[in-house]
């Protein structure tokens, strides 16, 4: 059973059934971590006494867990008469998968760049995800698949040239002895276990951020257990709506028996308005700050959350990278209200621009000649693991040294950001930033006016020139 609306009522009903001894073998809570963690702890409180948790509560981190270990644990009963809860936090299974059409484009890109083995492996993984067997794989040696099967597997009908490439990739995979069954995922094993049944008195608890409701695992969970999707209302800019903020604040204040003045709420919303966990943490800090006093005011919020400025600076730079005008202006306002020095803002923007220039040069001068092919420009894969395997080794060491000691994932994100820019735009932005710095130091023009003018041009549509003069210059 899945619930998208009335989450609180659904959760209360689930907890009541568990309290009455009607617990299900699997529960899945999906959504913002703040809500899923709260639901998971409430369920554990109902089904597992505190004194039994040492032996019968096993918690795994979904982003790093070896799933074979989880599956083995699910096959083993708990100690004594108490149920055993196996909790996988931030589960990555049944997550929203990338569209098959995007994955297939990457496969063709790998094949065209003569990265044949990664292309074959990626294709077999895609086919395994779609439920194919080795018998189905051998059938692709025929010239064409049925149009409806192509759409199901690859998200669209294939062109005749792509059909030929598909047959070539399958043939290459067969020559290496690769099979679809070798790419069956942990998700497939878990689906099989849920269908056959867990060990007696064992409960699987999954908390996750997103879910693909078409996945086999999600369907298996709903068939034998309970699932609740916690939705959060957001604005068009992806900021939390005021209603969603009030919901989070009310929950945290209720835990501590505190109240919040309207002005204090507005300030908290500005400081943590895009992220549920950050907002909840800031409310909790304010609750602890006031001690025995019941009401929290603006002065308390300013004192308890004074360490947020650093994160705002990096949020500001991230918004600039993504050309998010509304977010840029909001973050700039926050920083200036806190008294952030203009010189530091210029330095940080200059650093971001330098990284973007390096990334664009890497795409244009290093990767395009190596990985581009006739009639098809190089496109950065949207999947990080594909980037690690097929793109990262192609970047010259000299270029990597220019980026400094950055994690490959940071480099991956830099290259993604740079794809939306041209070198001409970036060089124009560098020139304008230098002009802005000079104007700040030599004129009496307000800092806010100068930065807002720069931001408006920075966040313009791609390929629009940054050429208008700065105010006061």
Structure characterization notes:
A six-stranded parallel β-sheet has the order 1-6-2-5-4-3, with helices on both faces. It has a two-stranded parallel ribbon with strand order 7-8. The protein has helices spanning 7-19, 33-47, 53-56, 67-74, 100-112, 116-129, 134-139, 147-154, 160-175, 186-196, 216-224, 242-256, 262-272, 276-289, 298-304, 309-321, 325-337, 342-371, 384-391, 397-403, 408-418, 423-442, 447-458, and strands at residues 2-3, 26-30, 57-61, 84-89, 202-208, 226-229, 259-260, 295-296. The chain is built from 23 helices and eight strands. Mean pLDDT is 82; it is low at 463-473. The chain is flat and about 75 Å long. With 473 residues, it is an alpha/beta fold. The protein has four domains: 2-93 and 188-229, P-loop containing nucleotide triphosphate hydrolases (Rossmann fold, 3-Layer(aba) Sandwich), CATH 3.40.50; 100-183, no CATH class; 242-304, Helicase, Ruva Protein, domain 3, CATH 1.10.8.60; 317-458, Zinc Finger, Delta Prime, domain 3.
């Amino acid at each position: 059973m899945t619930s998208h609306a009335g989450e609180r009522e659904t959760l209360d009903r689930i907890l009541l059934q568990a309290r009455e001894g009607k617990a299900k073998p699997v529960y899945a809570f999906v959504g913002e971590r703040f809500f899923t963690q709260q639901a998971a702890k409430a369920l554990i409180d109902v089904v597992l006494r505190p004194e039994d948790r040492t032996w019968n509560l096993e918690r795994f981190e979904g982003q790093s867990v070896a799933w074979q270990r989880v599956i083995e644990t699910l096959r083993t009963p708990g100690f004594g008469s108490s149920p055993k809860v196996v909790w996988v936090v931030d589960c990555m299974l049944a997550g929203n998968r990338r569209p098959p059409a995007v994955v297939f484009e990457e496969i063709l890109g790998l094949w065209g760049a003569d990265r044949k083995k990664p292309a074959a492996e990626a294709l077999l993984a895609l086919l395994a995800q779609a439920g194919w067997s080795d018998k189905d794989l051998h059938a692709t040696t025929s010239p064409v698949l049925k149009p409806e099967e192509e759409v199901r597997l690859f998200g669209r009908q294939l062109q005749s040239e792509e059909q030929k490439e598909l047959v070539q990739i399958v043939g290459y995979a067969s020559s290496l002895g690769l099979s679809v069954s070798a790419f069956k995922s942990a998700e497939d094993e878990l689906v099989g276990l849920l269908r056959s049944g867990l060990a007696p008195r064992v409960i699987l608890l999954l908390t996750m951020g997103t879910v693909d409701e078409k996945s086999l695992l999600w369907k298996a969970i709903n068939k034998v257990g309970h699932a609740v999707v916690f939705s959060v209302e957001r604005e068009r800019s992806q900021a939390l709506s005021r209603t969603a903020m009030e919901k989070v604040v009310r929950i945290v204040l209720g835990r501590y028996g505190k109240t919040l003045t309207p002005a204090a709420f507005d300030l908290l919303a500005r400081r943590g308005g895009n992220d549920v966990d950050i907002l909840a943490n800031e409310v909790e800090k304010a609750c602890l700050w006031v001690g025995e006093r019941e009401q929290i005011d603006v002065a308390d919020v300013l004192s308890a959350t004074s360490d947020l400025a650093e994160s705002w600076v990096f949020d500001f730079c991230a918004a600039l990278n993504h050309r998010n005008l509304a977010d840029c202006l909001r973050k700039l306002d926050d920083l200036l209200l806190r008294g952030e020095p203009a010189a530091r803002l210029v330095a940080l923007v200059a650093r971001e621009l330098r990284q973007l220039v390096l990334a664009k040069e890497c795409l244009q001068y290093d990767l395009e000649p190596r990985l581009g092919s006739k009639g098809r420009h190089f496109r950065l894969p949207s999947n990080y693991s594909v980037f690690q395997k097929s793109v990262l080794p192609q970047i010259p060491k000299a270029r990597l040294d220019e980026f400094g000691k950055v994690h490959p994932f940071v480099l991956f994100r830099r290259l993604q950001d740079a794809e939306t820019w041209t070198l001409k735009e970036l060089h124009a932005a560098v020139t304008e930033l230098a002009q802005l710095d000079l104007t700040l130091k030599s004129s009496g023009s307000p800092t806010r006016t100068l930065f807002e003018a720069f931001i408006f041009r920075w966040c313009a549509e791609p390929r629009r020139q940054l050429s208008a003069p700065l105010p006061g210059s």
